[in-house]
Design brief:
Number of helices: 2
Structural class: alpha+beta
Low-confidence stretches: none
Mean pLDDT: 80
Order of helices and strands: HEEEEEEEEEH
Shape: rod-shaped
Number of strands: 9
Radius of gyration: 27 Å
Largest sheet: 5 strands, antiparallel
Helix content: 40-55%
Strand content: 25-35%
Number of domains: 1
């Protein structure tokens, strides 16, 4: 009788060890899959940031190549991959796109110097011309004798400068 219960106890112990090993293997498998999904989402978001930066830079380059008097307005998406983003222009030649939740950031150094007109500037980020959550996502870029300027399109929304700054 002692041998029979000893074999059962050994079998139970082996089963528990095997079960524990299988749980660890499955958890490792799921962690690996989750990591891969997160990496893919990160790559997709970066691709969207690059596309947005290409679009904005193309408009700025176009403005730099035409005669003074050029003016163009163009819309930008409110969210990228279901995430609001902040679009800033630093030092006139650095475009920065930053996600609100993911804290992802994409920096593009521009070939042209562009001046940010202070419509839509926030106190927390004076270089921002499209802060997250801003519903007015239309931008105007214009060139005159003194340079290239970019700003929010407040007139399209029927806002004066003070109201436009308040919505930014």
């Amino acid at each position: 009788m002692a041998r029979s219960s000893s074999r059962r106890a050994q079998g139970s112990f082996e089963f528990i060890v095997l079960l524990g090993f299988m749980v660890v293997v499955f958890l490792g498998f799921f962690v690996a899959i989750e990591t891969r999904i997160a990496d893919q989402q990160q790559a997709n978001r970066l691709s969207l940031y690059v596309q947005l930066a290409d679009y904005v830079e193309k408009e700025m380059l176009l403005a730099s190549q035409v005669r003074p008097g050029y003016i163009c307005s163009f819309p930008l998406p409110a969210v990228l991959q279901d995430e609001p983003y902040n679009l800033t222009l630093e030092d006139g030649d650095t475009l920065v796109i930053q996600g609100r939740y993911s804290q992802n950031e994409y920096i593009r150094f521009l070939d042209v110097n562009v001046t940010l007109v202070p419509s839509g500037v926030t106190e927390t980020n004076p270089d921002s011309f499209l802060p997250p959550g801003d519903v007015n996502r239309t931008v105007i870029i214009e060139k005159n004798d003194t340079g290239i300027y970019i700003r929010k399109d407040c007139e399209r929304q029927g806002l004066d400068l003070a109201a436009c700054q308040a919505t930014g």
